[in-house]
Design brief:
single chain; alpha+beta; Leucine-rich Repeat Variant; 2 domains; 4-stranded antiparallel beta sheet; 16 helices
């Protein structure tokens, strides 16, 4: 089989399926593994115990799928068109800011389906059966593999960057044993810029290319199951699901284009919803509106927790106080704790 031609065909098929870029790498992640072990040793993974549990399995793809020798990485842009300006929303203390990637449908389902279609195309052409698809769904070092495959470089905020679309995209992988030719990596183009480090609201980017997840707003509002540390709550502002500040300030994102994927377009007006509106959703309405969304995975309790913090940071008003007081008796100690904190921010005793 002509594997050079096959690699070219895979990239062509991928673009026909809507992917912006397809890259191919080997599975040697020795350098990335050292960084991962150092990161874990510092405890920067916080309560994400699965990160430590998986350990080196994350940096050794063949331990996930024996026989794997190549990784096909795909990039799919997600920046939604017609969404309210992010900075405008962040500076509106009554608005609820939701990370741009979560304004549409759950990317896991969209990416997995598209990657599976590409896999089936490869299988039909080669007759091979040694494949497995991933998209942020297993212990896979996506950014390291994407960097090795030439899709982009790892920015100082630890996200993958490209010169033509910044960082507004999802990544997915296909593990295979096909001996495809690998693509050369791209050199780092961050230079002396440290805009992402300077703007981080909680100073979670503790050094170039190193994030302490315990301080990261995305971790605090999505991955953390318990109480958000009191000292970090005022710094979260109105960010109720994720944080995009490091991407919004990155100079390379001025080249970003909006996505053509309708699944990633804004749903339910999430780009322009107020904190009070979101806090007033019943549990049934939350499940209805968030069905098929990445937000659904945090559940209703943490949704209320996050918005309570946002309301605590909002401009004081009778409406804000009334909204918070309406949840004082909510049957969750986690929610009650954050509601009480929020009320104290408005000088209301509980």
């Amino acid at each position: 089989m002509d594997f050079d031609q096959l690699a070219a065909d895979i990239k062509s098929w991928g673009k026909a399926l809507g992917f912006q870029t397809i890259g191919i790498s080997d599975v040697n992640l020795d350098a990335a593994e050292k960084g991962l072990m150092n990161w874990l040793a510092k405890g920067f993974h916080g309560d994400m115990d699965y990160m430590a549990k998986h350990g080196t399995k994350r940096s050794r793809p063949a331990e996930i799928l024996p026989g794997t020798s190549r990784i096909i990485t795909a990039r799919l842009n997600y920046r939604p068109p017609a969404a309210r300006d992010s900075w405008e929303t962040l500076h509106d203390g009554n608005a609820a800011f939701i990370s741009r990637y979560a304004l549409g449908r759950d990317y896991h389902k969209v990416m997995r389906k598209r990657l599976q279609q590409l896999t089936e195309k490869i299988q039909a052409e080669t007759g091979a059966a040694h494949f497995r698809v991933f998209t942020d769904s297993a212990p896979v070092m996506e950014v390291a593999l994407a960097q090795k495959s030439g899709i982009g470089w790892r920015g100082k905020h630890t996200l993958l960057l490209t010169r033509d679309h910044g960082s507004w995209f999802f990544l997915g992988e296909i593990f295979t044993d096909l001996p495809l030719p690998v693509d050369p990596p791209i050199v780092d183009h961050c230079g002396t810029c440290q805009s992402c480090i300077d703007i981080c609201p909680t100073q979670a980017i503790v050094a170039p290319y190193q994030v302490d997840a315990r301080r990261c707003i995305s971790y605090l509002t999505i991955e953390l199951h318990g109480s958000i540390p009191i000292e970090l709550r005022p710094l979260i502002g109105n960010r109720v699901y994720g944080c995009d500040d490091c991407q919004l300030t990155c100079p390379w994102n001025k080249f970003a284009q909006t996505t053509g994927e309708s699944d990633f377009h804004v749903r339910h007006g999430l780009d322009n919803i107020t904190l009070i509106q979101a806090f007033g959703w019943t549990e049934q309405l939350f499940h209805k509106n968030m069905a098929g969304s990445a937000i659904h995975r945090i559940g209703y309790e943490r949704w209320l927790r996050n918005i309570a913090v946002g309301l605590g940071n909002a401009p004081t008003s009778g409406a804000v106080i009334a909204a918070l007081e309406s949840r004082l008796a909510y049957p969750s100690q986690l929610v009650q704790e954050h509601v009480k904190w929020a009320l104290t921010q408005h000088q209301v005793s509980t």
